[in-house]
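Troubleshooting log. The previous run stalled partway through. Resubmitting the same two chains, unchanged.
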Amino acid sequence: MRLETGISVACVVVALSFAGCAGPTTELKVQPRAVAAPVAPHAAPVPILPVQVYVAAVQDLRLDAESLGQVGNRTFAAHSVPQWIEAALRASLRQRMTLAETPAAGELVLQPSLRKCYVSNVDVTKAAVVVVEVAFQHLGKPAGSRVYRGRHTSMNWWNSDAELTQALQLAFDDCLVQILRDVDARAQLIASTRQP
Amino acid sequence: MQDGSMLSQLASVGGWVSKQGAALAVLCALFAGGCASPNRVALPVGKKAELSPAVGVIGMRQQEIGTSINRSNLTAAGGGLILALIDAGVNNSRAKRAEGAASSIRDSLIDYRPADVLAQALKTALASQTSVTLEDVQVVQIKDVSTLPERVKATPNKSVVVLDMTYELQPDFGGTRVVVTASAHPANGKPAPSSETRGKLPPLCYFNVFSSTYRFPFAAGTKPEEAAKVWSSTEGRLAKEVLDRSFTEIAAMIAYDLDVAAPAENALYKAPNTAQKRAVEVPGGPTVLVQAFVEKSAEDRVWVRCPRGELCGLPL
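Second attempt completed without errors. Output:
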């Protein structure tokens, strides 16, 4: 009985000692990867759209270019987030259309801006959020802008680097899928205007 | 013999842990002792003018408005691992729902700059209510524990007023709560720094924690998703208006609090006999309700003082 009480007490001591700690900032690294807009099951293969798309460099509009926020007592950071988004966006678009080398050559021009990118927690749940705004040009004319919010929430089991990296990766994917769906619709519209 | 040896080893481990337990009890008593002293560090009377000229630093802990939940606490009723796991599952479900519902509000606040609103409100409040002039207010994203101390050390020739800010939706989405930790750090030893320290902050001559809670009169039983539609409609007009009011109130509370003297002999803040009492959540700490007393009231708002000195702005 005494031993059991003692072990519980030891656990509390360990928990207390960790509770006060906020260790050094951990850097998360996400691998940019291509995603595809979801298609209905048994749908016909999606054809490559005959549209030239130009993707401008991603502008970073965040207050701090590195900070990702805090989960529990751990602080996280990431370098080169705009470059990740740009690489993933280009890789994803290349599957569906042709990438133009210059803005002038692009029938559809995308100017993405990174608005938010963070990880956080609410009680036992971890959350990752990526918000990207894209301004469009159709055939050389401004065609509005739209904000895309990618997010992921799930149980925070260990508060580990791997868990947080995966959450951030899934939030990126969620954001990219929304952008792709919209770009796809816009590209189809441009392609249809060129039909005789 | 072997069994006996193991038993004696276990007994010895038990004895060791028991000693650690006694040490922990002492530690807890010390913690409790610490809790019986004020959290607030009052600015020495008559020294306010020495803060000028000052610069302000506002540290943002979040990139967007946060969410909160009412925590399931079945474990408290019966204890046990199963109930603890159920609690975790329920809390996870509530947090996911809150994060989902908050998306539309966050979208509507995408261009809203809360720190800029607070900075302007603080400049105005200090200029109109005190003799402290803020020359400049910087807004920084808090990256780690050293972010704010580094900013203070980077300005050795001027006093620095530091605000560490968080803001969130209440669990039912019926209101918002802003919490700001304010501290003042003297330049060249004027005013003389307090002997008390707070976390990793550099020597300070003033410290307190403030909260401002605003509620919107939603009908009883309004779901978070329905409330979110109201908060975010018309490009988040309601959310922006309520947050603006909170930041203005926090700034006014800070300006007011700079003039409030500390209780004698490091005592806790006690309610005058005539003061009304309110149960409030202590800002900046764990979710604990305390009996605070109404120190100031105006129109539809009251400012209540917690026993350890924190000041909370609440609806009447």
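Takeaways: DSSP finds three helices and nine strands in chain A. Helices of chain A lie at 2-19, 81-94, 161-194.
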